[in-house]
Amino acid sequence: MIYQIPSEHVKDPLQPAGDIGIPAERLPDGEIVNIPVSALNILVTGTTRYGKTTFTKKFIHRRFRQNPLLYAVFFQIKPDDFTGEFMRPQDKAITFSNLLFPADNLFQWNLIREVRCHKREEWSSFLKEITSCLFADVMLDKRNMVWADGARNVFEDFCQVILHCYSNCPSNKALIEGMKYIPRIDLLRFLAKYPPNRSMLMDNFGFDPDHIEGYQLQRKGSDILFFLQNVLDKFDGSFMSASGEDTIYDFLHGAYGERLFIVHDQGKKASSILFEQFFLKYIGDQMLSLTSDFSGEMIWVLDEIDKIEHDFGLTQAVTLGQQFGLQILVSTQSIESLYAVAPDLNGEHLTNASLAGFPVTVAFHPGDPHTIETLRKLYGECRKQFVEMPLSRYDRPIVRSEIRPLVEDSDFASLNVGECYIKSRSDPPMRVRILP
Q: What single-letter DSSP state applies at residue 356?
């Protein structure tokens, strides 16, 4: 027996909501209801093969019906999870391999053009954002900070020469091969074409472009170029496009209803995650910026986002994005996996705090104790009354009450394929079976 608020005073989140809702069977009474589809953030949890992806696809189909002009960013680790159903001829896919999609659907990034899309006075600050993502992994080891920072400066200053001394937008292939294969003395002379670079050349390389007779590359300069080479080697696949003209800026300022698919290649993780991190962070920053001219609504559909292994601003996007028209749907097997994309400082605490940014949770069969414990806390508690039968038939039954979770461990364990607990805002969790 459970003491609860009388049912006539409880708002049922699963009341019929027209044909836009997701049909489901409420358990155990078997009543057919509709799960409302809204613009609230959603957290979907559960082990594989229990219905997470099926529910997510149903939800997205209905969100696009609600708002055909909705921008969308998908992150997926399986080749056809979302691209197979939601990619249209005009949409783009960001992925390492050039062979997964037709050329017209492949996002072929142009770094220089991305920078030129911004105002001239913003070039330097935006270029720093790009290089901070591309050099994030080599900057982790504090012992190599001097050389890694020098390599980042060389990359940044090389781009500054192109931006300020030339008018074209060379492809990523031309840009990277220009840095990789140009003779070292010619590289330093090229960097010196943009006067603000000269102090960097003197500090890191001891190079004075006005006195190059007999110049010998110093040990520090050689080490810096070694670290630079490590980052340049990660430009490969579609990120090393020979004729690409695509930019995230164009995606955000194109026709309403643009869709972008980030298809993670686990086999090329070292190269992929640097760019995936930057693209997601850039889009998130534009959505949350008070000065951005982006005016549409957007949804992020992030499936197993922990594979990116870097903080790209998910915590800020979850807690602040709704105010700026950004909806986030995260699908994960484990709550703990979200720690992988939390900020390094107090990551676990910030991840736990960000759960408050998901007013709707959908829990399929969970597979680890931490996820079960977290869901139990999110779903709340109530006072339950238990009747214990005495050992002797002459004794009276013992009535005992205690505070217990609304959804017990045994309730989670009994979830079958397609069954889940749904909690929307302050409403009590409901057990339902998603209908085919």
A: G
